[in-house]
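Lab notes, practical 5.
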Amino acid sequence: MDIAKLHSAQSLDTNVIMSFADDLCQVFEPARDISALAEVKQELSRLESVLEEDWSEVQTILKDVHGQVLMHEQKVEAAEKEGVDDATLHALRTELEKEQQYELQFSQELR
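Output from the prediction step:
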């Protein structure tokens, strides 16, 4: 066999092998991508469940804070009806304002 033909055949074989390798990479690369996407989807699902738990806790805290505001409002109303002294009424209103500010701040931080 002629050396030039042998060299040409080797070159052709190398090209075929490289082409086949490229084809394999194109087949297996998406498989890796799919596997990676599955992992990402699983992690997103886990994070979503953590977020739902956290959001539930936040809602509970917000309800508690709002409950405190309502309680202080009732105290102020009761004190006004009872005709308590100005210093006590002022202290109750100050506490109510603090609770309202805390509720407002907490709500704004959630946004």
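Observations recorded by the TA: The chain has a mean pLDDT of 81. The helical segments are 3-82, 86-110.
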